[in-house]
Amino acid sequence: MLKGSTVITNGTAQQLPENPLYFAQISIPEILTIPDQKPDMEQLVSVTVKPEIVAFHLIDTPCVKSYEGQLLSGKKLIIELNLKEIINYVADKPSQSTHAAHFEKTLKSVFVIVPKEITGIPIETLLKQNKLVVTPYIEDIFAMQRDERTVFKNITLLIDVTFC
Known about the structure:
Oligomer: single chain
Order of helices and strands: EEEEEEEHEE
Number of strands: 9
């Protein structure tokens, strides 16, 4: 049973970086289930998503061409991302009150290939000096009520790495 009404989404970026040099784009599809203590859903109203960077660290990789044809620099940044999500819905009750279900997930292993050095400074030095900035941007949020307990949601993210 798919519900087909318009869902309000909150959290998409108002602006994206114009020419990102070091980035990853990912799509995160998932099915969210309303917690047991909450009433059934008659209609999905809105979905709010806020991405947060939990941690990141640098790893060494071979300097080769990947299977996808990308040249690996010898360095990758592994980024842990936390998604805070809120689903607002109208309860399937005579009072039709509005309820919110909160979800929080940590996603690991988002990889961004970075250079070994920037303007002659090793990337490890920039990392130790806190000169790496990792910014998540939500490009799109799609959400659809599947039934009275579940919502299909897909988030498209751009993870941008810059140096200051």
